[in-house]
Amino acid sequence: MATTSATLSPVTLAAATVTSPRRRTSVNVNYISGLNAFGGLKAHNNVVSLGLPVCTEQSFAKVVSSLRAPSKEKGGGALSTTCNAVDEIFRIAAIMNGLVLVGVAVGCLILTCMLVELGDRTLPAAAWSPSFFGKDQLIHRKLGALADEYGPAYLIRLGIHRTLVVSGWEVIKECFTTNDKVFPTRPRTLAAKLMGYDHALMGSAPYGPYWRHTRKIATVELLSNRRLELLKHVREAEINYLLKELYEESVKSGGVAVVQMREKFSDLAMNVIVKMMTGKRYGGPDGRNDEESKRCQKALNEFFYLAGLFTVSDAAPALGWIDVLTGTISKFKRTAKELDYVLGSWVNEHRERRLAGDTKGDKDFIDVMLSILDDGKTSAKEADITIKATCQSLLLGGNDTTVLTLTWALSSLLNNRHALKKAQDELETQVGRDRQVEESDMKNLPYLHAIVKEALRLYPAAPLSAPREAMEDCTVAGFHVPAGTRLLVNLWKMMRDPSVWEKPSEFVPERFLNEHAKFDVRGQDFEFTPFGTGRRMCPGVTFALQILHLTLARLIHGFELGTVSDKPVDMTESPALTLAKATPLEVTVTPRLSSNLYAC
């Protein structure tokens, strides 16, 4: 039985079941219980009543029956059926007075409007949206709980915006195959406007020529297989720096060091991405201004935090002034200014070098973008914004995904020592202890791949996909979805579906060696899409996997890993746009290879 919802006003809703005269199917309609102020509609146990004397309600029941009966006239629908009930309405009016008459009239009018709308526009069963975006709210879990109640596709209202939330892989597949051309664009948000160069970031830009152009540049000039192979030395050098630092800290501490691993992973990811874009390391040994590096990292963290907050402007634009009073807009602008300072310094440095004729050596990503945009058609200001926005997109997409996935993977291994031991045994067999792990070894390490996949399944860096917006009317899961409806995919919920995954909440890498061995992360297996799918899928999947596999392999191979006092790792999640650990990951590291293997 199909269910649907019609939401007319942001007030408390009560459900009642009626029959659409045009569809002849039972549908779930949300009535405005605020009508009870007029002595109007009430709902109890899915039965609508008027709060009137029995004789009056019996009379009105005839109206409802008339409304529910299909018209016998050719072409008759909800409107013609309603007209047939006018005489009955006036008969009822004769025995009513004052507010009772108003209540019934308004009730009938709204019921008629709902039935007319339902004749053409069936929507998934709606859930009234609570304040999902408050402080300390794990939105993906709240939406997951609603999916348990309403099913894999349901409708909520986020302020004035109708939002379709999907968490079933079959529905997701329909959205991004049959309807992929319907959902390629992003809705406009205050965060993307103020912190993303007015929607110029790849992740938030509307679908169109600009988005296609910048994505193509990033994909071909930085994230293609050819380019990643040329930049292989960058990844390996930065991972070597990480191992060297861990080894030196262990030696200074008498053989065992206690390390905050998120900070180490953050430095690694930042330096790899920045070196690929600018040609230079950004922080740490032999790097540039370490204070500037920390400033940039802090601004990135602030971006993710602020982008995940509820803003009144997005929910109800007419009340946007509230964001001024609460300081939200000033926070957005301050973070944008910090990021622009860093990104602008990179672009200015490259421009000055080009003007000085210093173009020797390999071109980095910013060099390539300057060459492409220096076509005489793009102003310097527009080119600078495009370059800064693209670099910011790559930082946001590559940094947090790498850091969070490595943190969750290592945390899971420390809480499942048998899996850690199994991974080390695999490395002992395939690599031994006489050399470091190389990228060429990855094809011989299936259990390591399974560990990374399981970490991505349980803890996707983006538990909710960035929202999309329907560009035209379409049908999803048998329901009519009008243009302008926003789409939110709950990846976290989908990848814990018990109908697909046995023991879905447990860390079991072996599942990717057995029943799910063929599952890949590149968006074609819709039960497992940690990087998204469709036209807006993350373009940096190959880059992310290269970093994740090699870093985790060298870490497991090079050190005995443990926790302070052998306590289990706290796996509490932090409320944010991305899925971060709420507490730092403190790890004890003890070198297990010959000292010469840790030298850069």
From TrEMBL:
Fetch the InterPro entries from UniProt. Cyt_P450, Cyt_P450_CS, Cyt_P450_E_grp-I, Cyt_P450_sf, PetM_cyt_b6/f_cplx_su7, Plant_Cytochrome_P450_Monoox
Annotated GO biological process: terpene biosynthetic process
Q: Where are the transmembrane segments?
A: 89-116
Single annotated GO MF = heme binding
- PROSITE patterns tied to this protein: CYTOCHROME_P450
List the subcellular locations. Answer: Membrane
Keyword presence, DNA-binding: no
Co-factor(s): heme
- Keyword Coiled coil in the entry? The reply is no
Task: Please give the Gene3D superfamilies that the UniProt record associates with this protein.
Answer: Cytochrome P450
Q: Which Pfam families match?
A: p450, PetM
Q: What Gene Ontology cellular component terms go with this record?
A: cytochrome b6f complex; membrane
The UniProt entry lists membrane topology as: Single-pass membrane protein
Report residues binding heme.
C538
Major localization class: membrane
Instruction: Write the record's keywords in alphabetical order, separated by commas.
Output: Electron transport, Heme, Iron, Membrane, Metal-binding, Monooxygenase, Oxidoreductase, Transmembrane, Transmembrane helix, Transport
Family to which this protein belongs: Belongs to the cytochrome P450 family.
PANTHER family attached here? Answer: CYTOCHROME P450 82C3-RELATED, CYTOCHROME P450 82C4-LIKE
- Record's protein name: LOW QUALITY PROTEIN: cytochrome P450 CYP82D47-like
